[in-house]
Structures are given as C-alpha cells and as structure tokens.
Amino acid sequence: MKRILVAEDNRLILETVARSLSKEGYDIIKADDGKDCMDKMAGNQIDLIITDLYMPNLNGLELISLLHKDINFRTPIMVLSVAGAEENVMKAFNMGADDFMVKPFSLNELNVRVKKLLAMKN
Amino acid sequence: MSDFTSVKLIFTITLVFCFTFSVFSENKPVFDKSFFPNTSSKSSRHLNSFISKKTFDADVKEFNNTAGSDGAGTDFTKLSGTHTYTALRLERTELPNVFLHVVDEDSIQVNQLESEEDSTQKREQLIANQNNPKTDNSKENSELQKKKNFPRSLLTGEKLLHIFLSDAKAEKLKKELIIYGENHVPQNFRNFYFALIDLFFQYPVIFVFVIFIFIFIINIISVILILNYTVRRKNHKARYAEVYERMYEEVLLSYIFGEIEWDKVLVRLQKINKHRNRRILTSVLLNFHENLKGEVEKFIPEIFYNLGLYKDSLKLANSFNSYKKAQGIRELTYLYPKGAKEIVEKYVNYSDDMVRAEAQMAYIRLNQKNPFEFLSNLTKPITRWTQLSAFYMIRLYQLPVPSFSNYLYSNHPTIKNFSLQMITYFQQLENIPEILDMLNSRVERTRYLSYKAVNDLRLYEGRVSIRKKYRKETYKNKLEIIKALKNIGTEEDFQFLEIIIKSESVSLKLEACRSMYFMNQEGRERLVKMSKEPNSDIEQFIAHITDNRN
C-alpha cells in the first residue's frame, strides 16, 4: 500500500484530502505543519508528500528546500495552495516540487494527479 | 493563578484601608465658630422645612426628629460633611429665633427659641456654657474630647493652608470656594463638591490620600475583573466553536463521502437549533466552499438549504448593521445563490462602501452571463477593492468579458477608470474612438489611463492628440505622454521632444531622451548632435538610459 504524507494546517482540508485518498486505497499520514511533517518523515517510508505553502512553524517552501538538502531524496512532492500566482508556482517548482494544485481544488483531479505522480515515481 | 494572587493582595489592601477608615471615622468635623442671630419673624415650620431640604444629609434629618417641639439644644456631634455650607445656608434662610451655637471644637447646636423675649437670655446662657464647657459636663465629656482630638494631631488641609495663609485668609478662601461651588458646580455634584472642601479643611490630608488610593484600587480591581471575565468568555467561546466545528466537519465529511444518510446527519448535528451553533455550521460550509470544488461543491448549497441556515443569512443581509449585512450577502452568494440574486441588486448602490462592494462582487459572481451589467446603473463609486476583486473573479471563474466601452460614458469617474483599465488589459481594440474621447476628460486620472491605453495598445491614431495635450497637462501625465511617444512616436515628434530636453525638468528631460533614443536610429543621431552643444547634459542622460541597471 502506498503511503502518502499530507501536511496542511487547515484541519478541514487535511481531513478531506486524507479521507478522499484513503478511499482510493492509500495509507495516509497527517501532519499539522511543516515541522510535524519533518518529524513524521523520520522512520516512515513515504511515497508522496502533499503540502500546503503557508503553514506555521515551517512553511511549504522551507519544507521542500529542507527535504531536497538530502541528495538521495526522491519522494515526489505536490503543493496544494491558495497562492496560485505564477511567481509562487515557479518558486515551488524551482525548489523541487513536482506538481502544484491551486485551491479551491477538485478531489477527483487530486486523485488523478496523485496516481500519476506515484506512477512516475515507480 | 498569578491573577488570583494579585486579587488577594488588592483585597488585603482594601481590608487594611477599611480598618484605617474605621479609625478615622471617629474623627468629627470642626465647625467654624460662627454665630448667626436671627432677627426676622418667620415661623419654626420654616426651620423644619429648611432642614428637610437637600442641603442636609441623613444626619441632619435625624436632628429634625430629635429636635423636639422647642427645637433648642440639638447636638450636631453625629453630623459630618457639609457643616460650613449648612451654616451659610441657615444664615441665609433668616428663620425666626434660630442661631447656631458652637458647643466645642467638634460639635455645634442649632437653637430655635420659642419667642424673641427669651432669646437674649438663652443666648447668654449658651455662650456662658461655651466659655466654661466643663462646668456641667464632667469627666465623660473630657474623655470624649480626648478621643475626638486624636486624629487632629495629624496634618489637615486647613493646617497645611495655615502654614502659608493667615487664619482670616484661609477662612476667606474656604467661603469663596463654597460660593464658587454654589454658582458654578452643577446641582447634582454640588454636595460632593462641598464634601470635598470639608474633607480638605477638616480631615487629615492622609485621609484624602487614602480615599484616592481606595478609588485607585477599586479601579484596578474592576479592570482586572473585567479583563478576567472577557478573556475567560473569549476562551470559552473559542473552545466551544472548536469542539462543534470538529463535530460538524466530521458529520458533513461522512455525508459527503457517502458514509451516512441525511437522516443520520440530522441526528448527529447536535444543538443545531441554537443560533451560535448554526453560525459555526455556516462557517464550516463556507470553509468547504472556499477550498473545494467539483463534485463536493454541489453538496454545500444543498446542506445549507436543507438545514434552514439560509434564513439566518437572510436575516443578516437585512440587518441594519453594515458588517452583518455584508456578511449575510456573502454567505448567501456562495451558499444560497438563488436567494442571493433577489437581494443583491438592491444593495449594488447601497450607501455603505463595505455592503456595496460585497453586493457588487456578489452580482459579478451570480450573473455569469453579463457580470458587469450593474455598472450601467451604478450611481455610487466602485471601490478599488471591488475593481481588484472583479478582475480576480474574471480570471478565477473564467467569466465572459464584456465590451467595456459601454461603461466609458458613465457619470462616475471610478467606473470610467475601471473600464479603461479593463479595455487596456483585455486589449479591446474595437474601442479606440471611445478611448481617444477620454483624453478630453476633466479628471486627471482618467486622462492618465487614456494616455496609458494609447501607449499600451499602440494607438497611433492618438499620437497627435496626446502631443497637443502635453502643454496643459500635469507632471504625471506629461511623463506618460513622453513614454507613449517612445512607442508610437515618429520623426515628426523629434522637435517636440527636443524642446522638452532643452527646457523641462530633469526627469522629463531624461524620459524625452529615452523616447528619442529608443524610437529609431535618427533619434539617436539627433541626440548625439545635441550633446555636442555647450552646457548640454545629454551625454549623461544617454549614459543613464543605456545602463542596463536603469
């Protein structure tokens, strides 16, 4: 079973994404912010990270940058943010994000993108 | 815990104060040693009526009760406060056969004699008593006297004054203060004012300080209690909202993901008949709407309607409070579009900016076929916020963009300006004549946006017109005209730009240089030629505009 780590400070979004992906048969780990995400990364084999850009303690961009400090890091990262301006999208991709979805988003679209990212990883 | 410790400390201080107060309350006021003989012929009824007036406090009424029919020999020992004022007032009443007699330092007597004949006799008797107070009052009186004198050893306001003023002057000052109070202090505060004067002249200064400290402590206690209450209430509200938010999110997610039926939703949504809970549920639904679209989106209005939450939003939209009204419009727009359509139109021209902006955005959102139709009937300005939001919504919801030339002739400059910006952004080149018409607008910003449109849309037809406008334009607009000539100018404009380079301010010169330099090769050559003229700064300008950093 593929394991997905979702980092999101909005509890409603976190729960919705987690529930939607669970229904698709993924194992979901939830994190409230970037720091929590880093903590939960340790000791867990993660296949995909879905993160928000604006979070307390450690924001999405900082999280991506920290993860990519490890040269062996190969886990795909999807950004899910309300900040869909071109510069934010470019910044995220330059830092090492693999996909970007702007809120409000469709759960069906999310599921398709997740499937594709996981397939690409394999 | 620290809050409670400080409250305890303040409580202890208050107790200490109360103890101090009880000690000092033994102190009785000193009455000024005046004697007021009465010569008029009014009845004793007047004295009782005078006594029952507001100038006397409860203690004086007690005097009235104990006075007896003869009215003589009443002791003022138990009285406090406004004695000086009382004496003055009594003097002015001119009641028959009434006079005040000072028994000792701390007490006075109000005497009313039965007839004028015995007045002289009684007065003499009383004066004799005063001169020899210990003749009929024995040891007991002396003890009482000692007890009363105890606080007198402290520094009173009067004693303090006597350091600087003579007795007569201090007395005069006191009377003037009382008369001032009578003439200037409002009736309601007058007694308090007189009491303050008495306090100052009769009680130890420390006592007045203690009163102020007491008031200060009361203030602090009140502030602490109010703060404590507010914080507790706020925290309680936040906790309550969080608990129910979680619960409602959980139930709604289960419903949306098909885990439970609607009947179970109604059972599991607890306390939904409470207004506070319905507001929480509405905020949860708004949160859903803001973050999710697609298949989930259709559930939200359905839930909102089925639970009757739209009724609360309609109430808010019809509220007198502008903030609530705007909130109601917003909720209806996103969660109950059908109901919102009916009320949005009437608020598009509303007097309050916030409500108007919300209604205009709602209109754009709800009328997807013709989202800017409301601009035709707009009588109030369209705020900057609405303009930005409208632009954002066009892009976010892929709304159809109308021809904005329809709104260029609106009476309101903000609508003209918004339309000009939209024409420029969406490159509506079919509106060229209307844009050129706007060059003659009376409003500076409208003209500025027209020059900008001419420049950005490369409207060569406007070249001559904008050049003609230059002389009478403002600095900002002049700059925009020169910038436009860089893109639409021809050789015919060189002479015009050369005049600017020779005569205008540095920034206009610099911009004119830039326009000439980047227009074509001929412009560059003419600049080089000009730079060879004496006292010319053109070489520096060229260096500046060709520097990549600028």
Describe the structure.
The complex is a heterodimer of chains A (122) and B (550). Chain A is of the alpha/beta class. Chain A has one domain (3-54, 63-121): Rossmann fold. In chain A, 44% of the residues lie in helices and 20% in strands. Chain A has helices at 11-23, 34-41, 60-67, 86-95, 107-121, and strands spanning 3-7, 27-31, 48-51, 77-81, 99-102, 105-106. Chain A has a five-stranded parallel sheet with strand order 2-1-3-4-5, sandwiched between helices. In chain A, strand 3, helix 3 and strand 4 form a beta-alpha-beta unit. In chain A, helix 2 packs parallel to helix 3. Chain A is globular. The model of chain A has no long low-confidence stretch (mean pLDDT 90). Chain B has a domain at 28-151. In chain B, helix 15 (322-335) packs parallel to helix 17, helix 16 (337-347) packs across helix 17 (353-366) and helix 21 (444-456) runs parallel beside helix 23. Chain B is flat and about 125 Å long. Chain B has a three-stranded antiparallel sheet, covered by helices on one side. Chain B has 27 helices and four strands. Chain B has 550 residues and is mostly helical. Chain B is 65% helix and 3% strand. The interface between A and B is medium-sized, with 17 and 17 residues.
